Amino acid sequence: MGRTLASAIIAAHSTEAAREGEICKVNVDFAFANDITAPPAIVSFKEMGAEKVFDKERCAVLPDHFTPNKDIASAEQTKKGREFALSQGMLYWEVGRVGIEHAFLPEKGYILPGDIVIGADSHTCTGGALGALSTGVGSTDLAAVWALGETWLKVPPTIRVNYEGKRPAWVSGKDMILSLIGRIGVQGARYMALEFGGDGVEALPMDDRFTIANMAIEAGGKAGLFVPDAKMLAYANARAARKFSPVYPDADAAYFRTETFDMEKMVPVAAMPHSPDNVKPVRECGSPEIHQVFIGACTNGRIRDIAAAAKMLEGKQVAAGVRCIVIPASYEVYNQALDMGYLRTFTEAGAVVCTPTCGPCLGGHMGILAAGERCVSTSNRNFVGRMGSTKSELILASPLTAAASAITGRLTDPRDAASPDFFKKLEEE
Amino acid sequence: MSKIFKGNAWKYGDNIDTDVIIPARHLVTSDEAELGKHCMEDIDKDFVKKVAPGDMIVGGENFGCGSSREHAPIAIKGAGCSCVIAASYARIFFRNAINVGLPIFECPEAAASIETGDEIEVDPGAGTIVNKTKGKTFTVAPFSPFLQDLIQQGGLIPYVRKELARRKGA
Ligand code: SF4
What we know:
The complex is a heterodimer.
Chain A: H1 5-12, E1 23-27, E2 30-34, H2 38-47, E3 59-62, H3 72-88, E4 91-92, H4 101-107, E5 116-119, E6 133-136, H5 139-148, E7 150-154, E8 158-164, H6 173-184, E9 193-197, H7 206-214, E10 223-226, H8 230-239, E11 257-262, E12 269-271, E13 279-281, E14 292-295, H9 297-300, H10 303-313, E15 323-326, H11 331-339, H12 342-349, E16 352-353, E17 374-377, E18 393-396, H13 399-408, H14 420-428
Parallel strand pairs in A: 2-3, 2-5, 3-4, 5-6, 8-9, 8-11, 9-10, 14-15, 14-17, 15-16, 17-18
Antiparallel strand pairs in A: 1-7, 12-13
Helix pairs in contact in A: 2-5, 6-7, 10-12, 10-13
Chain B: E1 5-11, H1 18-21, H2 32-36, H3 47-50, E2 56-59, H4 71-78, E3 83-86, H5 91-100, E4 104-106, H6 108-113, E5 119-123, E6 128-131, E7 136-139, H7 145-152, H8 156-169
Bound molecules: iron/sulfur cluster (SF4).
């Protein structure tokens, strides 16, 4: 039987046979940490007796979580990562240029088809949208990669996920991945890879693919990979910071299991508190009242996400008593949104627009919830206390659903906040 | 001879995520003792007051899911726990625990049977978990040879140190 994409990429990076279940030593193409995970990695790096990172063009530190520094402790923490990166001469981008790592690195062409990418952040799986085996580790594992340029990976079994048919305009990548997590559960892909395909994927924009790959970890997955196609290669070729060689699965690849979705039947869905697999159609959630909407994060802070939300909010007002916080995931997105007039649309609607950062996604800053408050968020985790008080509630949904909810002040299906003409126009653009 | 862990169990359910093991608001440090003060506080606010040195956390399936924060196994160590017993672990937590030297045991039967307060003895060398309160003994499947080797070398840090020395010499 042939190889899945994950197994083929591991085999291409290892001298071992790389059969399923085997632990293999692999070369790593790119390795990064953020302001929270870099400091412990630096301590481990020094304890390892390492002096220099294995390749300064392939190792990076990105200050994106508690930045612009939210307090003194985070300022000290960010400083450690900055000083280390500068002393090593490795890749580092300062606040004002950086974005959320999982949005920024693909944009800048550092994550490429066929790569093995290791990041000290669980949402490193986002890079799978570029046909890379991109996976998260802890700080000590990352330090070992910085020191050696290699790591160990177990060749995972793969669940193949096929999205078939034509996607309705009210269904986004977020609805596609939440539907999968709702079906297989938060540990449905534990220790496994997800491989996305099907005839509905061909037309799927890159931004939606990033959203889908981003949440592979919410199903317990090690990675979530798309097979290289014309759209992906065009994206990568336009941005590549170095050479790359795409890897493909075999036609007779042996999958652990296959899950199939008929996209014509898909509807906007939401993950209700407090688990990403507590997924229901938005229309069946009972329209709970909300206090905040957050549009952003590495899940949904890209230009198509911002555009969808802005179009929904155009000429409308955020409901009284609701805070709507919009955070583009990078400056590329921010500037595009500025040029397109979306930022103006948001502020005229009464929304807040902030500088690229993780912000409230992990309960850092810029929109923390009080006890008893409920937020519709485009982020990826709704664990207890994730955005603030342990007595607050988070509902995960698409940018369209989040924007529709901001207008009504209740969790709202985008079809109930906009006309069929709106979706027709959305489809044409 | 490896050390035997003795203590009382603190039992939690399935899918215990790293956000409740150590909430993000405390991730402004990576100091073990400091992180230990906030261990489990979002699921059990009095955990750190109740836990005694050597006690074990017992979880269900998918223990340690969520973020990649190595601060989670560090916080458990910082709280004084000797080890974790669970039915299964999330992948990144599993790697992190081995890397930071937090002993973890995967044993669905033990995880199902143990209740909070039970007196537990774990013998990593023999691969046994004894629930002294209930008078039951469970066997833990050994790690893969690769991991055993890594653990024997003292974890990832000594492994890398050796590998770097080998490369320098070569
Ligand atoms: S946006 Fe949220 S999920 Fe993404 S890297 Fe930042 S904290 Fe993590």
